[in-house]
Amino acid sequence: MTDIAQRLATLRAQMALHHLDAWVLPSSDPHNSEYVPARWKVRQYLSGFSASVSTMVVMQDKAFVWADGRYWLQAERELAGSGIDIVYLGKPDVPQWNHWLAEHLPNGARLGFYGATMMVKALADIEPLLQKKGVSVHTEHDLVDAVWLDRPGYPLEPVFAHDLQYAGETAASKLDKVRAQMRKSEASAHVLNALDDIGYLLNLRGTDVPTSPYFHAYLVVTMDGARLFAHQERFDAALLAQLKEQGVALRPYTEFFADLAGLAGQSVLVDPTQSNILTFQTLRQHGCQLVEQRAPSVALKSIKNETEITHWKNCFVRDGLAMVRFLHWFYAQVGSGALTERSVSDRIDAERAQLALFRGLSFSSIPGYGPNAAMMHYGLKEGVDTPVAAQGFFLLDSGGQYDDGTTDITRTLVCGETTAEQKRHYTLVLKGMLRLSAAIFMHGTRGLQLDILARQALWNEGINYACGTGHGVGYFNNVHEGPHSISTALVDQPILPGMVVTNEPGVYLPGRYGIRIENILLCQPHQSTEHGSFYRFETLTLCPIDTQAVLKDLLGAEETAYLNAYHATVLERLGPHLQGEERSFLKLACAPL
Questions:
Q1: How many CB atoms are closer than 10 A to CB 379?
Q2: Which domains does the chain have, with CATH numbers?
Q3: Count of H helices and E strands in the chain?
Q4: Pick from 292, 538, 482, 505: which is nearest to 410 by CA?
Q5: pTM score
Q6: 3-state secondary structure 137-179
Q7: pLDDT tens for residues 483-540?
Q8: Residue 384, SS3?
């Protein structure tokens, strides 16, 4: 019996002990974090599927993993022979896991999951269907403890301050803005589960995962103070004094749920998209009136202040220099026989590690050569290292965390000879990326309305990519940040000045190759007329785009002009910091078409 089969058998024995017909394993920790420490990688432990986002459902005779389009190929590879079925989320008529369960569970079934790791919305969406079928829900036990006997504990590395010179606003000021929204909502308290929001509000950061600078905590904000629930040994005397000065009291992490009893009978603002079910259940048990709204911090942190923007632009210069030094090395090595995916990943990581204010990667670098690049979130595996030949494309998606910003950049690099089809697809991706970069749009425009600019050239030829075009980016925070995005999904959030968003169309042909070109954009005011306010994008990312595979006749005049202007800016901003061969390389890479 394989390790995965043994783990599933042990879990099913626990399910039988508790008389459960189905058990759900999300990808989350109790804070709905995208990236989680080892302790909370329970779905990966039980299935062997290492994607950062998916949901697993285990029944007594079957097991399923829901994987969206980014991870289909990865799921097929990692789940082969496991006996776990893949559900291809995003294909026509494929329901989300919760709706599938509501339909397939028999009348009177018992559904289980650990309430601290399941978000409220997942259950709320299907609650009427479950009630109609008499399905009971059980959330009090974490069955994984009995399966994962050497399960890791909580990370306990020190918490540290995000200095005011980079944050641009004190925690006290941010909390006052939250309280202003609480008053409008007639709430006397606000409970937060989300770690990126807590870190943003309190100007605190941690190292609980290698790529996201947060620490495990809960936060309760009241009109006259705030209580932070975290592991107390992580805070030194200076940080404790700073918290006290900002009106924040520190309490043990394990006392959070018990402390909620002190809010009994009060009106409490909670965000159902960020809060776990156990939080909701505890508040309701103590007679709280729940004001279910988006957490005020979501909008606050999405609009970057002037200090953040100014420092972030400096950050992009340093990150761009690391990329240029890497690219100079890469092209010198192509054809030598020495290049591999791992050596490429190690090199870009090492370049960033030398930069001032560097705090770590913003996600594990994704180097994909040839067919591997067709897997959108392909990752290096132990014992596997694909060599790079002097032909086709190499895709590198990477980024860094710094005191003064977060970066996320993808470049598709030409390794040598490319086919006519590859050139055409590369140019179509670039064409869409440039069209979106140059967009001018009215106040109130949603990402859904902008998405077509990136896809139209591909759609004209019957090509699509099974993911969004762009996501928000945190400021020395999560690399993926809401509430805005650019995609075909109906996200009812306008793109507003101060918001940053990625621009990353692509082509992914399984078994053949993948192409993606990604920059980060900042929404800026453009002009106001009698027709309203208009916005534009400013490109923050500073790095040349490979033009070796560009079919010039396929780019329009405006697109070519935008690309040339972008490269002129890259050369102007980065050139003075480079010398010798690296400066000559940059000048050549930024030459106008």
A1: 18
A2: 3-147 (3.40.350.10), 160-301 (3.40.350.10), 303-589 (3.90.230.10)
A3: 20, 28
A4: 505
A5: 0.92
A6: EECCCCCHHHHCCCCCCCCCCCCEECCHHHHCCCHHHHHHHHH
A7: 999 999 999 999 999 999 999 999 999 999 999 999 999 999 999 999 999 999 999 9
A8: coil
